Amino acid sequence: MFTAFDFDGTLIKGDSIKHFARWVSRNKLEFYIKYYGLIYFSSSLTRLKFIRVEYFYRKMQERALSIEDFDTLLSKMMYEDTYPLLEQIEDDVLVVSASFKEIIGSFCKRTLKVELISNELSRPEIDVNGYHKVIALKESKGDDVIINKAYGNSKGDYPLLDYALKGYLRTSRGVLVDYNK
Predict the structure, then answer these.
(1) pLDDT, one tens digit for every residue, the chain (181 residues)
(2) Cα 11 → chain centroid
(3) CA 127-122-156 angle, 5° bins
């Protein structure tokens, strides 16, 4: 049995892709021009997400930045109740995220010590969001996987929350509440 968490807006405040792009950018002007300018090279919001991550990930490598330094930034973005919440869970814990392994993978593994199911730059045909979170979960853990509890914060998490025996939703004020199916 597993407990599953969304990442962005559930475990951390804000969006990890945007945080990553800001961290990689040399200044605000570069961030705004590149992050928002890439909209013109995308045919869909899903494709835009992949284009942004690919661009800023390549910049990170060119600039010889260490992903471990970004992990430190993510630690500062966590909700205050994230560590206590993770520590009290008796199930195996998964993060099922629409973010990317390349951005949050080491943080999930080294800092949170949880398994990650997420988007990957090497698999642009799959967007782990909405119902695809449940599909990716079943592909990873088997069709009969049981999710005891699930935590999310947006419509993209509702299918995962619906699939779980019990769901919790983080509100825009950062409070966890029962999710009513």
Answers:
(1) 999 999 999 999 999 999 999 999 999 999 999 999 888 777 788 888 999 999 999 999 999 999 999 999 999 999 999 999 999 999 999 999 999 999 999 999 999 999 999 999 999 888 999 999 999 999 999 999 999 999 999 999 999 999 999 999 999 999 999 998 6
(2) 9
(3) 15
**Full 3-state SS string of the chain:** CEEEECCECCCECCCHHHHHHHHHCCCHHHHHHHHHHHHHHCCCHHHHHHHHHHHHHHHHHHCCCCHHHHHHHHHHHECCCHHHHHHHCCCEEEEEEEEEHHHHHHHHHHHHCCEEEEECCCCCCCCCCCHHHHHHHHHHHCCCCCEEEEEECCHHHHHHHHHCCEEEEECCCCCEEECCC
Please report, as a single letter, which amino acid is at residue 131: Y
pTM of this structure: 0.93
Q: Do 119 and 130 form a contact (C-beta atoms < 8 A)?
A: no
